[in-house]
């Protein structure tokens, strides 16, 4: 039975789910109860950090020679989550050593780089799920007055294959998925989940000694940068629509600079101080281009045509036809520089590059070329 809890997103009621961390904690609780009681468990109750208490079915319960094993199936609700439907197993065994040890089994990743909330060499289990698992195990131990140690091995069959399609390899998580979840509940289309991913990437980069942030909205910018300048983008940060969050976190972590490279259709929004570039939040791109065109001497008819353009590429073509492209884009880059610097209050250097697929580089902020040179030099040093 799915979780009967809903969130309203974009005017629609969407069903919530529960995280891999919740599944792991619930499976741990069920397997531990089996270990100490000697009886199979059909369901398990688990309290999430969000305050929602779940009664979840226990699947594939089994007694092993050295312990007990149980699984809880991931339910992502209406969120398009690749892990939806996967079984999260916990195998619980008594240990000769005091304390609770969490290990990675099949399909659970191992951390190989610093900067994540799990230690290098250990299982990729984030802080909140780790606490939930420990608390679930300890509660059962207390109930049965067991004073010894426990070994908990988490496994997610199929996790290794799915992990290759995620950010995990770039973050230094090898061999499987991360056990995630800060609230224990999956909220459909959650912006916070995307922002958390940006933060994890930036934490990893900073922990590895990185001082510079090379950021992109998505794959368009990555491909353009590789083709145009031959720059290695392996350590890039993909910020999607969340420019404000990217800049705020860069200040928090103490990076020295941010270079943002983006297609005109996205990055132009920054010229109006728009720090979330999702179309549902704001637009105004052709309004900006039409206004600046008229300030640069365009006729009313030309300004109207630019304003009514269906795409930024069409507007750019119109500006080029009327010899207005250079002054308008120069103003756009000036505004982008202003608003990025305003967001960080001068705490770090911010630069940007605007491009289009048809025309290549359309504009740069004042110091962008210096940072591009820096990245090109780093690439040459690696050769």
Structurally, how many domains make up the residues?
A: 2
- Going by helix content, strand content and strand pairing, the class is alpha/beta
User: First CA to last CA: what distance?
Assistant: 55 Å
Q: How many H/I helices?
A: 13
Proportion of beta-strand residues: 15-25%
Provide the spatial order of strands within the biggest beta sheet.
Answer: 6-7-8-12-9
Low-confidence runs of at least 5 consecutive residues: none
Total strands: the figure is 20
Our Rg estimate from Cα atoms comes to 25 Å
* Overall mean pLDDT: 93
Shape: elongated
The biggest beta sheet, please?
Answer: 5 strands, mixed
Share in helix: 25-40%
How is this structure best summarized?
The protein has helices at residues 20-37, 127-143, 159-163, 168-171, 191-207, 219-229, 243-253, 264-267, 285-295, 300-307, 312-321, 325-344, 368-382, and strands at residues 6-9, 12-15, 17-18, 43-47, 53-57, 59-63, 67-73, 87-95, 100-104, 107-108, 110-111, 149-155, 173-174, 176-177, 185-186, 212-216, 237-238, 257-263, 349-356, 360-364. It is of the alpha/beta class.
What does this structure look like?
With 383 residues, this protein is of the alpha/beta class. It has 2 domains: 6-186, CbiD-like (2-Layer Sandwich); 191-382, no CATH class. 39% of the residues lie in helices and 23% in strands. The chain contains 13 helices and 20 strands. The chain has helices spanning 20-37, 127-143, 159-163, 168-171, 191-207, 219-229, 243-253, 264-267, 285-295, 300-307, 312-321, 325-344, 368-382; strands at 6-9, 12-15, 17-18, 43-47, 53-57, 59-63, 67-73, 87-95, 100-104, 107-108, 110-111, 149-155, 173-174, 176-177, 185-186, 212-216, 237-238, 257-263, 349-356, 360-364. The strands form 7 sheets. A 5-stranded mixed sheet has the order 6-7-8-12-9. The protein has a 5-stranded mixed sheet with strand order 17-16-18-19-20, sandwiched between helices. Strands 1-2 form a two-stranded antiparallel ribbon. Strand 1 and strand 2 (12-15) form a beta hairpin. Helix 9 crosses helix 12. The radius of gyration is 25 Å and the shape is elongated. The mean pLDDT is 93.
